[in-house]
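Input chain follows. Return structure tokens only.
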Amino acid sequence: MKVLTLTGNHPRHLWVVEQIAKSFNLAGAVLLRRETMNAPSLTSVPSRDQKNVLRHFNDREARESHYFAKVPKAPMAEVLEVASIEDPDAVDFLRRLQPDVALIFGTGLIKPPLYDLLPPQTINLHLGLSPRYRGAATLFWPFYFLEPAFSGATLHRIVAEPDAGAIIHQSVPELMRGDGIHDIGCKTVHAAGADLVRLLKMIESGQTVTARQQRGTGKNFLSSDFRPEHLRQIYDVFENRIVDAFLDGTIEQRRPKLVRQFD
């Protein structure tokens, strides 16, 4: 089974690519050069929120460095780095390799002509439990809305609409005392990566993989929905201990109903 990945180039994306390369014939990887993880400019940030912004983005970089430390490079045939997923080189790359399975993770919306070349077995790894959390920053909003158990990932079929394809499997991390928002984000990627490898092994062995059309309502979050003031909930009110509050029962213990291909 020939696999192709189309992902971002942040540590979380590269970690998932490595997990696939260790278990399958990874014919090639398209890496989209994403924005840096550094804290944004504080020029337009209210003075009372600047400390939270620096803390949030610096902690994210530190936790990702911890959870996605460098691992031995697994073999893969070719790597193509692009500044835009719509780069014609990506189209030529996919057309030439003709993979049996494609994985998409962190590239943004795939549009024609690249979309038209994807194999039927194309899976999108969306960090967020669809349909409740779709779009951008979908591991931040469950904390803001005080439902950390809704931090998770959705493996779904690719369609033209963002994060809306039929759901194959959903993954959630184990919530443990002391976990901060970025611990849960990184643990979500670990859980999804392990489940993805297991799912691909099912596909490789010819097992039946089912998918369920998305039901229910949620929100398609935009990058512009986030404001620095939202961080007050995480850091000023809860001192980044929302998981502890959830486990202690001091906030409502809402839990999602997951779509699972296996236990």
